[in-house]
Request: fold
Amino acid sequence: MWRDAALVAGKDLRIEWRSRVGLNQVVPFAVVILVLFGLALGPSRRVLAPATAGLFWVAVLLSAVLAVQRSFAVEAADGAGDGLRLSGLDAGGIFVGKAAAVTAQLLVLEVVLGVVAALLYAAHLSGFVMLAASCVLATAGLAAVGTLYGALSAGSRVRETLLPLLFFPLVAPVLIAATKAWQAGLQGRPGSGLGWLSVLAVFAAAYLAIGTVAFGPLLEDG
Amino acid sequence: MSSTTANAVAAPVPAAPGGAGRAGHQPRGAWRGRLVAATGGAALLGIAATVWLGLWVTPPDVYMGNLVRLLYIHPPIAWVMYLAFGLAMLSSLGYLWPRTRDLRFDRLAGAAAEVGVVFTGLTLVTGSLWGRPTWGTYWTWDPLLTTTALLFVLYLGYLALRRVPGEPEARARRAAIGAVVAFVDVPICYFSVYWWRSLHQLPSVTAGKSYIHGSMAWTMLLGFVSFTLAFVWLVVRRYRLAGLAQAEEADGLALALAERRAEGEADAVGRPPGPAPLVEHGVGLR
Amino acid sequence: MTYVDAGYVVALVALAVYALSLVGRERAARRRLGGQAAHRPGGPAARPGRPGGRLGGGSR
Reply:
């Protein structure tokens, strides 16, 4: 299963690297969102700096939907999904692989976005370990839910609107926990974010487990 | 009265499906229909009595004044919401469990979830209307309130997922997995909002609780019973409607096939095919 | 109108509208199914065992 996961993740990341859609479109999109938040909230540092964590994570959530849609658009073209189904790869492995590829892309995006947010909102990036740990755990949860729902809504004509409707309410706990963990890190008291890290870990573990089990039946549908 | 209307419409065919079905299923079907009707009637009477007792008979509360009257309907509605989502979850699991896999479980899950969404909306509205005079605000980011609002949106998404067309089995499987995925989120969500707000002193849902006794307790109990009966009636009716929609879908397919075949035969004979019989298909019914 | 009245009105009206819509949709579905049976080449006998024209005893 792990070998299959590595194969699928490698395939997805290679496709992304060759097309560079993520790099050329999703990352600039996320940066635009950060700029828009700045415009909406005004130039005051006293407003923007405390809101940095929340705005950063909202931008990540919005981009995550795009990354997931991209990950399944790749399978929809040229009957690639059928190829994947018939490849004999373990379904759980396919799920973990696709989720890992999405996680990797989002982590790259978060690094860029974190730097831009720190510049734009004049936030001080301290508590680096806390920031990085919450990024990894939150992104794993987002990618797991996104891949599950991406497969659920893939192939339907309404997937562009269905996926966000399913995805955003479900990841509300991730938004809360990741924002609180980031706030703890940014305010220089990383210890108070540990509880939130555990929330993120529980969320990621729960949905990785469900996805690994449920992906087989979902793939059969086509 | 409704049954006569339906039979009148189906009457042009001598052996209408209603007649045929009734001949075969007379004892059981009629008994069941009567039970459902009795449930609906009891729910109607019960709710009417609750409203009468709640608005006119019971005295105002010592602390809450007349606002206590909302507590005769708000907690029962919220209880039905939990009941509905619990039932939706159980029947989704029933569908996913290979030994009990049956499209009836899928229809039951869909029916319960739809009724649940209606009751969730009403929980939010009645709760807000109670919160405005009590807390001074329609909305507060209390864990219970926030989780309820997210439940509402989560299950709206679930209903949207159910409406995606596809093979009945594939659709049922997708919906059942979606239900489980959504349900697992509820406790995580509740606890994260709980910890999120724990630094603040906020009015909680139990803050307005006061001593309830006598006619007030009975009215509330009656509210619980009658809204639960209304829930049962609504779910049964919704479930039956889903069964009809499924039959209609299958019929529509068979009919389309028959039409194509008839066209093919007409072409083979060399006659231009007549206008195909116009039949409404079950669009928007599911 | 007080908050209490508003709560009762919203709850009761919404439930009544939902219940009536269910009844109406069910009736429309039965009518369509009956209509299709007339056109069907195999006739209504091809569809046995479906709960027939009984519409829940007409409690409304």
Observations:
- The interface with chain A takes residues 150, 153-154, 156-158, 160-161, 164-167, 170, 173-174, 177-178, 180-182, 184-185, 188-189, 191-193, 195-196 of chain B (CB under 8 Å).
- Chain B has seven helices and no strands.
- The CA atoms of residues 20 and 238 of chain B lie 23 Å apart.
- Residues 40-201+213-243 of chain B form one domain.
